[in-house]
Structure formats: structure tokens, C-alpha cells
Amino acid sequence: DVHLEGEGQALLGEGDADEIDLLALDRAAAAIGVWLLSNRDRAALADRARGEFIADLWQGRRWSAEDAVARSRTLGADLDSPVLLGIAVEFVADGGAEQTAHQAGTERALTAVQERLRGLAVEAETTCMAAVVGSVCLAIVGFASDARARSKAGILAARLRSSVQEELQRSISVGVSRPGSAEALRRALTEAVDAAAHGARTLRAGGVYHSVDLGLRHLLARLGEGPELGRFVEDELGPLLEH
């Protein structure tokens, strides 16, 4: 049993520590420090690998369903579930100086959101692979059946939103995709991101948004991100706009 008394005085049991005791204590502290650093580095590398994997899925790089499931197992989250959904989390911009202050800590805050989401998934006994990709926290969650998958994902998202609001004092938009399988992971992530963006950027309001409820707004949001909508407006309304 070791405790400190005064300034840097180490005591072992009842007696004072001699030079050998202090040397042993110093080496033990160094070993613990190395262990903590190595575990922190290992966790950071694992998070980076998950982020790259989820980014690959989202960007449409070729992963077969079997390869995706096998890869998820090596990253500590088995996605071999009958029903999979995408969840995306984006902070709602507050505007002004407060927004600037928040942006400085966004990456750190997203990491906190990621950890909280993982913890809630464990409590709900749900498979979850989460990672921070750019300015969004992306996750894939798995359920045993399709019966109440949307409802359970919505409850998980609502608990996450409430927790983040309480702990970080920040408003988030949580997007939830339609239920799917390992063959449709890109679709699930894209739907979740679009739903989260609808709340964070279009409505500028925190909440839980299901992609299935967006309807035509989902298509319009996708068109607004590329040149197609602008070209359509120019073709149809060009003479009027010129006038």
C-alpha cells in the first residue's frame, strides 16, 4: 500500500521508503504511464480506422456485404445483424460569436458524442460502430429484427440528443435512416446524413429526423448540393431571369 505524505514523500506500509523503494516506485509509475499512453494511442488508431472504414462505405467505395461485416469485426463492432440502420449527428449552428466559439471545440465535442452514442448502444444491448467523419458523427447500429427497429433507433437517438443537450449544452440534429441490411450500408449512411442536415442546416433546429419522413424534401436537398438544380432553373427560367 503506497500513499504520499507531505511533498513527494512516499511511504510503504508503516515504514519510510528507502532509495530502493523510491526507485521501484518511480519505475512502476513510468510503466503505468507507458501503458496508459500506449492504450490511448491504440484507442486513437482504432477510432481512426473506424472513421476511414465508415467514410469508405459512405463514399461508395466497393465493399461487399461479407467484406464489410468481416472488416467490422476486426474493428471491434460486429455488424452481422439482420437489420442495420445509419445514424448521423450534426451540431446545429447557433450563429454569431457563440458559433465561432463552438466551432473551435467541434471535433472534441463530436468525439464526446461518439463515446456517448457507443455507451447508450451498450446499455440498449445494440451493436454499434460509430466514428467522427469530418463535421459529422456517423454510426451504424444493428438490431435482431425489423419489428421495432425504427422505434428503437428513434429512442436511442432521442436519448443521445437529451444527453448531449444536458452534458455539452449544445443542440444536435440526429438523422436516422430506413432499416436495411449489410448490402445497403452506403444508402443507410447517406439517408442518415441527409436527415441530420435537414434539421441542422435547413430547419436549424435540433431534433430526431427520420429519412423516411422527409419525402420529396430528401430529393430537393440532394439536388441543392449539386449543379443540377441550378441548370434546371436556368433552362426553365433563363429568359425571365434575364428580363
Q: Overview of this structure, please?
A:
With 243 residues, this protein is an alpha+beta fold. It is built from eight helices and eight strands, in the order E-E-E-H-H-E-H-H-E-E-H-E-H-E-H-H. It has helices at 19-58, 65-74, 96-104, 106-123, 149-168, 185-202, 216-224, 228-242, and strands at 2-5, 9-12, 15-16, 83-91, 127-133, 136-143, 172-176, 207-210. The strands form two sheets. The chain has a five-stranded mixed β-sheet, sandwiched between helices. Strand 1 (2-5) and strand 2 (9-12) form a beta hairpin. The longest helix is centred in the first third of the chain and has 40 residues, at 19-58.
- Give the fraction of residues assigned to helices: 55-70%
Instruction: Give the uncertain stretches in residue-range form.
Output: 1-12
Portion in strands? 15-25%
- Computed structural class: alpha+beta
Question: What assembly state would you assign to the polypeptide chains in this entry?
Answer: single chain
Q: Quick one: biggest sheet?
A: 5 strands, mixed
Cα-atom radius of gyration: 24 Å
Strand order within the widest beta sheet: 5-6-4-7-8
SSE topology string: EEEHHEHHEEHEHEHH
